[in-house]
Amino acid sequence: MASQRQQQDAMEATAETGTDPAVIASAASVVLSWYYFFAQDDREMGIFVGLWPPTIMAFASYFNQTKMSDQLRRATGSRGGLTESVQRMVQGR
After folding, report:
1. Span 60-86, pLDDT tens digits
2. 92 by DSSP, 3-state: which?
3. 57 exposure class (CB count in 10 Å sphere: 0-12, 13-18, 19+)
4. Based on C-alpha coordinates, what's the Rg of the chain?
5. What letter would DSSP give residue 40?
6. Alpha-carbon distances, residue 62 vs 11, 57, 72 (angstroms)
7. What does the alpha-carbon distance between residue 8 and residue 14 come to, in Å, rounded to a whole number?
8. Side-chain-side CA neighbours of residue 45 (13 Å)
9. DSSP code string of 54-88
10. What are the residues whose beta carbons fall under 8 Å from the beta carbon of 84, sequence distance 6 or more?
């Protein structure tokens, strides 16, 4: 039963990833970068805009990790750090 629930959660997460605003914004900035670089022949602006996707994805990753950490803390009922929560989960308490 738990395995089936995990599979369903994984499928939902995969479906959400493609429509994540950070992914859409990153893809749009890549297209905008190509536009500036090739169509407008403004190479500096194209390179500048081309640096946005890694930054956008880094912020999205940070916020997702913070969200997961909070969920883990709530699930374990711990007010301690992440290390303490993981140790408690491994020990089965």
Report:
1. 999 988 888 888 778 777 666 667 767
2. coil
3. middle
4. 20
5. S
6. 22, 9, 15
7. 10
8. 11
9. HHHHHHHHHHHHHHHHHHHHHHHT--S-HHHHHHH
10. 78
CA angle 53, 15, 56 (to 5 degrees): 15
Q: What is the pLDDT of residue 83?
A: 75
In one-letter notation, the amino acid at residue 5 is R
Of the candidates 49, 9, 44, the one whose C-alpha atom is nearest the C-alpha of residue 25 is 49
Task: Examine the pLDDT at 1 and tell me if it is beyond 60.
Answer: no
- Token readout for 3 is 């395995």
Encoded tokens for 39: 């169509």
* C-beta of residue 48 within 8 angstroms of C-beta of residue 29: no
Paired tokens of 32: 């905008």
